[in-house]
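Let's practice the habit of predicting before peeking. Look at the sequence and jot down your guess about where helices and strands might fall. Then scroll down.
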Amino acid sequence: SIGRLKCSVVAGAANNQLANEIQHAQALMDRGMVYCPDFLINAGGLINCYTEYLGQYQRDHAMELTESIYERTLDIFRTATADRITTHQAALNMAEARVAAVATLKSRR
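Done guessing? Here is the structure:
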């Protein structure tokens, strides 16, 4: 269905917007369309759940944390453009780097 799209951005509110994220993110990029990976733009839900999990839920704090999603999105777009990779790959690279950084910090404890 990518060939029938008449838009400049694909940013779904649900998970798994693309059947094959690697192949279809590339197809969207080749067509000049911006793809916003679902795990990026839906991060607010996870952030909210995490603040609840900590047991000291404060709505204002959760909202403050979600405000970083916008800047992170711009970072991913910049990285994708600079590195000539899809936004999916840029987001995945960033997520993997963050997970690795946390694992490194935990191993030092």
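How did you do? The longest strand covers residues 9-10.
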